[in-house]
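Fill in residues.
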């Protein structure tokens, strides 16, 4: 039994398909299948039901996979201990990041970080909050960048920065003629573009503006992309909300559509989370430092008139 064989069965369990698992492991499907077959022969049990699609573990396979996950995590910990002792920034560091953060934060720090630390292998995936939490527990990622929410007590949390929300208002909307937006204005809006259920960005703004769920309103629309909402607003339809870093990327004509909130100003806290037994502290400190250096210093502390949502 080898660690490589354990990695292969974990890949099949994750992808539910031998071909996709082989691609993920950068080996041919026959090689992966043969290695798993040898492991099954060694332990005297079938680990997967190959007659089902997607492929699923057998009952004993489920137990073996749980143990394999622990074994691989312990093996990775040995490598991490050595790298941390050497104060090394090498090795793979996998980060999950919210789709409402990634387009605006990553361009600010990631290219510079890669140039500054060329030996670091940092890999980023866009994921929703619940996906980040699950991936951390499963060991699929090492850290997650998200907004503070309830239910993160089991993770180690590191503050990154605070980010205000602003309104993005079409020229044809009545709010375009106002200097600031109040929650009462938003609650009564006829054309409000909201993210789908499951995005904390959406949940925070619905709660802050005391809006009814979009499911009970014919006047709210649900899509999956903040950028799509912005294009809709620019074409002359409705309003949406965007984070502070997104505002910084706007052209001058686009900035004419921005309307700040009246005090209290809705604000989110961005954090980086890891499992509490995470070892690579030096690498983590480097990533946090680069992120904080990439945003205006005013965003590192909660400003007067701002309220967390």
């Amino acid at each position: 039994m080898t660690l490589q064989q354990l990695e292969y069965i974990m890949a099949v369990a994750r992808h539910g398909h031998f071909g996709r698992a082989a691609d993920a492991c950068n080996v041919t499907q026959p090689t992966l299948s043969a290695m798993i077959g040898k492991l099954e022969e060694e332990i005297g049990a079938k680990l997967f039901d190959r007659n089902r699609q997607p492929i699923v573990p057998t009952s004993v396979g489920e137990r073996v996979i749980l143990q394999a996950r622990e074994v691989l995590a312990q093996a990775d910990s040995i490598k991490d201990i050595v790298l941390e002792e050497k104060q090394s920034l090498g090795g793979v560091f996998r980060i999950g990041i919210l789709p409402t953060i990634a387009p605006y934060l990553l361009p600010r720090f990631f290219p510079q970080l890669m140039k500054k630390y060329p030996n670091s292998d940092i890999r980023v995936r866009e994921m929703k909050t619940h996906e980040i939490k699950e991936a951390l527990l499963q060991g699929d990622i090492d850290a997650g960048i998200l907004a503070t929410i309830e239910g993160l007590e089991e993770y180690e949390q590191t503050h990154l920065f605070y980010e205000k929300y602003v309104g993005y208002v079409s020229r044809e909307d009545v709010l375009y003629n106002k200097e600031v937006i109040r929650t009462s204005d938003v609650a009564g809006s006829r054309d409000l573009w909201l993210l789908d259920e499951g995005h904390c960005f959406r949940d925070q703004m619905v709660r802050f503006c005391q809006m009814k769920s979009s499911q009970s309103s014919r006047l709210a629309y649900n899509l999956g992309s903040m950028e799509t909402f912005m294009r809709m607003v620019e074409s002359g339809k409705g309003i949406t909300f965007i984070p502070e870093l997104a505002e910084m990327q706007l052209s001058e004509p686009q900035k004419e559509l921005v309307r700040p909130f009246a005090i209290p100003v809705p604000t989110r806290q961005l954090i980086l989370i890891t499992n509490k037994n995470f070892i690579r502290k030096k690498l983590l400190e480097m990533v946090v430092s680069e992120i904080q250096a990439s945003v205006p210093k005013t965003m590192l502390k909660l400003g007067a008139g701002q309220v967390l949502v």
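The two ends are 50 Å apart (CA to CA).
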